[in-house]
Amino acid sequence: MLPLALTMGDPAGIGGELTLRAWQALRRAGFCFVALDDPDRLATLAAAMNCDVPIRVVTGPAAAVEAFGDALPVLPVRLAVPALPGRPDKANARAVIESIEHATGLASRGAVGGVVTNPINKAALYDAGFAYPGHTEFLAALTGAGGKQIMMLASPQLRVVPVTVHASLRDSLAMLTTDMILMAARTADAALRRDFGIARPRLAIAGLNPHAGEQGALGDEETTIIAPAMATLRAERIDVSGPWPPDTMFTAAARARYDVAICMYHDQALIPLKTLDMDHGVNVTLGLPIVRTSPDHGTAYDIAGKGVADPTSLIAAIELAATLAQRRAAAGR
Prior knowledge:
Layout: E1 4-7, H1 15-26, E2 33-37, H2 39-48, E3 55-57, H3 61-67, E4 72-76, H4 93-108, E5 115-116, H5 135-143, E6 150-154, E7 159-162, H6 169-175, H7 178-194, E8 202-206, H8 221-235, E9 239-244, H9 252-255, E10 260-263, H10 266-277, E11 282-286, E12 292-295, H11 312-330
Parallel strand pairs: 1-2, 1-5, 2-4, 3-4, 5-12, 7-10, 8-9, 8-10
Antiparallel strand pairs: 6-7, 6-11, 11-12
Helix pairs in contact: 7-8
């Protein structure tokens, strides 16, 4: 099995700590990854955490497989200045971007099975020329999939796809269209079939308004925007149900009736998932030619450098990426 590429993330955040803990947890578990990071930074961090993680600089993914059982393999991406926990430095922005670019290139060439990204702080990258709303859009541009990508948050209890993502609530409502719902639903359906092994995915379409509009009394978007999308999807033989009232569609009984919830805006999707299972939530980018996952949390500057960061979500992201990569490899994709 090919290794995964694990990016640096913001060096002032908790990504390095998570990387070290993930290697400790997975070194004997049959999963392998190579960190695209500064080996000196990781070694210093391991010593500060009193964390027994040998660091081994490698020249490529194949060498990482050989090393993984005994040491954390690192493809060097050097920082411009030493990283200070909780204090992002624009001087290191170029290294953060380089780590993502290098990992994506390896995955695009088939040298690694997929990319797992540690959390970044976009504001800290803008001075280095980062012009994207987030990881998802940057990876889409790097792989030539711009405009086709969507974000899925997945956990053992729930999968959600927000139709609009990193925009204010006011802007999200203004930009919502039938075509956007169609793109999100089609991409989710295809990904669940290809990567998750679900032969006939069941998509639950969330309403936008309270009580899914209450027959138009509380808003007409369910009729004017959502219903036309659902009619088109049904004509394409995609299994959709709804529009579901958003306040009842995430109960245990409701969740048993679908495989993914297609939600109209960011918080409508992410609040229930993170409430149900924050620790095991994984961000999966659908619609890319490569596998990409990440933990469902941010840089956590407030606890960076304290050695208390929980690696559970990163470990789940690595395990899911490996599973998705294996399915693609088995299918010859």
